[in-house]
Amino acid sequence: MRLPACCEAEANPGGCDMRREEVYAQLAKVSDPELDQPLTELGFIAGVELEGSAVTVRFRLPTFWCAANFAFMMAADIRERVSELPWVERVDVRLQDHFFEEEINSGVGCGKTFVETFPQLATENLDELRETFRVKAFLARQERLLRCLLALGWSEDAILAVRIGDLPSLAPSREGTELAERYLAILRERGLVGDADAPAFVRPDGRPMEPAAFRTDLAHAQRTRLSVEFNAAFCRGLLKTRYGETDPKSAGVPDEAHPRRAVRRGVE
């Protein structure tokens, strides 16, 4: 007779560890929407708790007043990704130490949209904002790979001649391979890898980069990448200042005195 999930976990601690690893593998697929880095690498995951087929994920952000729309996106993405595991029946996402934690935890837990969660404050859902930051992520990943190839001595014409099918074996170094893999992943995400013979280096909407505009496009992508990297470093510093060199499963102390700020922070 098959034991209930909670009894199985108690009878097989190794199985519980394996399930915890599966949860963290799913969490590694969730990125900060602005920074294009996994929450697991940023230190935003504060802990994971398992109780049979129920999973509780606690996460935290660099400040008490981080924008509610960004926090909501991360919470919703955590719930969606962990729910993909076949053995998971319930996911509780617990944003902590945040000025809108109660509203976000309740809204995401009930499957509400951002506007449904904040009917008095929000005027639109988050699809447009997500796309804005996925375009920035696309440009930043592309620019890193282009700079790598230029540093290896590739000419602009040779770069623009690269096809989608060339990307997996494009750069000889480990770093270059990783850059190519991340760029290929976001091409797939945007549905731009249907033809292996199609140009590899395109604009976010799929239009090929033109030789005459190569340097201009590269400079724009570099500015985007530098902005993303600066914000990532800034957020890491704020998180370290707030929580210190603590165990990643520990929690911080909320700044209850800070006033509530606007739901949406500016988008460049």
Reconstruct the topology from this structure.
Elements: H1 5-11, H2 13-27, H3 39-42, E1 45-51, E2 54-59, H4 68-83, E3 90-95, H5 101-109, H6 114-117, H7 127-151, H8 156-160, H9 174-189, H10 214-243
Structure description:
The chain is mainly alpha-helical and 268 residues long. It folds into 2 domains: 5-117, Fe-S cluster assembly (FSCA) (GMP Synthetase, Chain A, domain 3); 127-231, no CATH class. The chain is built from 10 helices and 3 strands; from the N terminus they run H-H-H-E-E-H-E-H-H-H-H-H-H. A 3-stranded mixed sheet has the order 1-2-3. The chain starts with a helix and ends in a 25-residue tail after the last helix.
Provide tags for this entry.
disordered C terminus; 3 strands; GMP Synthetase, Chain A, domain 3; single chain; three-stranded mixed β-sheet; globular; mainly alpha; 2 domains; 268 residues; 10 helices
